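Please, structure for the following, as C-alpha cells.
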Amino acid sequence: MPCMESPARVASALIAIGCSACAWADVRLPPAFADGMVLQRDRPIHVHGSAQPNEEVMVELRDATGAVVRSGRTVTGQGGRFTLDLPAMPGSPDALELEVRGANTVLVRDVVMGDVWVAGGQSNMEWPVAATGAQADAAVAAADDPMIRILKVPHETAGRARSTADVRWQKASTKTVPSMSAVAFWFAKDVRARTGVPVGIISSNWGGTRAEPWVDLATLGADPAFTDRVAELRARVEEWNQVPPDERERLHQDAMRSFQAAGTQWWTDVNAAEPGIEGKWMLPATAIDGPDWEDAELPMRWSDHPRLREHDGVCWYRRTVEIPAAWAGKECFLELGAIDDADIAFIDGRAVANTIADWTTSRRYRIPAALVKAGTMTIALEVMDMHGEGGVLGDPALMRLTCPAAGGEPLPLAGTWRMRVGRSAADLPAPPARPSRDAAPGTSPTDPGAIYNAMIAPFAGFPVRGAIWYQGESNAGNERDAVDYVRLLPLVIRSWRGTFEQPDMPFGIVSLASFRPFRPDAAVSGLWPLVRDAQLQAEQSSPNTGTITTIDVGDANDIHPQDKRTVGERLARWAAAATYRAGDVAWRGPRTKGIRRDADGVLVDFDTERGRLATRDGKPPASLAIAGVDGKFVRAEAELVPPNGLRVRHPDVPVPMEVRYAWQDNPADANLVDEVSGLPAHPFRITVPADPVQPTMPAPAPAPAPSNGAPR
C-alpha cells in the first residue's frame, strides 16, 4: 500500500479516479459541486475532479447574463485527475453558473459566493430545529432566507476514503429548516447577519458517535496513544480480506447460531426476576388500568420521560388494535422503527420475535398467519436498555402494522400506549454481541476512521471558512476515554485541517453542557469535567481554535438540551471575533491566567474580555474545590478580589496544591461570569506552583574576639 502523505491528497486522488472503470470518459466533480452550492469567497476557486486521462478540461463561471466572469483550462494527468484554481471573487448573492467541459459537460446552477462552514459532531450538533421546543417556532418564523444553504451528509461509513456522497444543497425555508441542525442554523443565521454574505453549511454529524471514527487513520495512528488500536484494526482488515466470501458466510452462520443460543440464555437471565413475566403483563386478560400503568406516547426516548431518565432496565408497553376481517389468516408484519437496545414483541401474549444489542436497526417482525384473527389484537413490547439512552426511537411513520397479502392501508401504531416500568438492569450480564454480516472491520460507526472516510473525505480540498464541532458525550463513558480526549480532540482538528488543506482553519468547539443531577454534597464528581477540560486545552494547544462554554444552558434531565440557539449564536460570536476580526464582540467568559499563594489561601488571576470578574447572582463565588498535599478535594470558600482576582481557601487545607471550578457533570451552582458580557467562566483546574526553594547559604564566620576589650 503506498505511503499516505496527507488525508486530503489521498481523498482528492480517489475523487479523481471516479466510481467505476466504465465511466473514465465522463467529467466528474466532487459531491459538494451541486446545484445551489456556496463557493468560498475571497479565496481561489478550487475546481477539481476527474475525466479521461490527458483530456483538456475547460472551466467557466458565468453570471446571470451569460457573461464569463472567471475561466481557465487544464489537462488531466495520467490518472485522469485535474485541478484548476480560478481567481477569487467577493461574496455575493447573485446566482452564477459553473460549467466544466471535457468529453462531456457538467453544469452547476445557482452558485453563490459566500462563506462555507463544516458543522460536525454527534447528536447535539445533529439535533434538529423541530426538536427544540419554543425555539423551533422562532427558527421557522425566521427561516425564509435562500442565502442560507445546508448540505446534509447522510450517515455512512467506509473502510477507505470515499470520493462520493449522496448530498444536495437545501435553501433555508419554512419547509426545510425544521429538519436542519439547530446549532448550525442559528450559527449560520448570525454569521449571515454579521457579514451580509451567503452562508453554506456542510452538516456532517451523527448522534452517539465517538471522536475516533471522525479522524483519518494516518493521523490517528501517528499518535502513540492510538497507534496500537489502529494497527490492530489494520490487522483485522487484512485477516478479513484473506477469507473467501463463501467461507465468511459459513462462519457468519456459525456465529449467528452461537449468538442466538447466547441470546436465549441472556433473555432467560433478564426475565428470571422480571415482574412483567411473573405478572403476565403481555396477556390480553391482564388489566392495564391500575395505578402502576400510565399512558406513554410512542415513539419516545426514555430521557424525555421523568420516570425513565435514570432507568436502566425493562419497560413494558401495551396497546390493542382492530384487525380487519380481510387480514384474518394472513401473514402480517409488526414495524416499530429502531429500539434501544433490546426487545421482545408479543402478539396476544405469545412472543413472536426479539432483538438484542441493536439500537440502530428498524424492527420489522413477522406475525404468523395463524395468530392473525379479525377483531382485537393485543401488542405488547418488553423493551430492555442496559445503559445510556433507551426507548422506542424511530420515525412515527415507521410504527405500523402491515398485511401485504391483504393490501390496503397499514394500521398506524404511533401514539398512545400503556406503559409500566419493569426490573432494573443492575447485576445483569452484558448482552451478547451481535455478529455482523459482510461488514468488514473498519466499517462500523465505532471504528477509527470509518465515519471520516464516508462523511468528511468526500469533501477533501473543498475550500471552507472553518469548522464548528459539538461532540464529546460518547467519549465520557469511562475515565480512560475521558482522559484520552485531551489527545484525541487535537487529532480531529489536525485531520480536518489536512483534509480541507488549511493548516490554520478556524475550529470552534462547544464545551459540554450540564447534564445529570447536581451534587451539592460533592466537591468534585463525574467524568464530563475531564472532557470539558480537554476541550479548553484544545483552544490553548491548537492555534485558531476557540472553545465556547455552555454549562449555563444544559438540562439536568436531558442530554439533549433544547436551547440550541444560545450555542449556535455563541459559536457565531467566536467566529465574528476570531475569524472575521470584529473587535466589538465578546465570545468567551473569564479564563484563568495564573495562581499564587498569599497569606490567606491562594489567589487565582483571570483574564476577562469586557468587564470585571463577577458572579451572575451577586452571591459569593461558588462551585469551587480545593485540595492540599493529600489530593483530597473539599468545597472551598471564595471571594472576589477586584478587579479580576479570586481568593480561594479552606481552614482544613493549610497548603493548597490545586483548585477546581465547576468540576461536576452538572455544576448548577457555578456562578463566575464576565460582569459586562454575562458569559460564564469555563470550568477549570489549576495547580499551585511550587514555592521557590531558597538556596542554603554557608554560615558567616564568627567575628574575632577583641583584644583587652578595646577595638582594633
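Residues 1-24, 693-700, 703-712 have pLDDT under 50 and may be disordered. Residues 591-687 form one domain.
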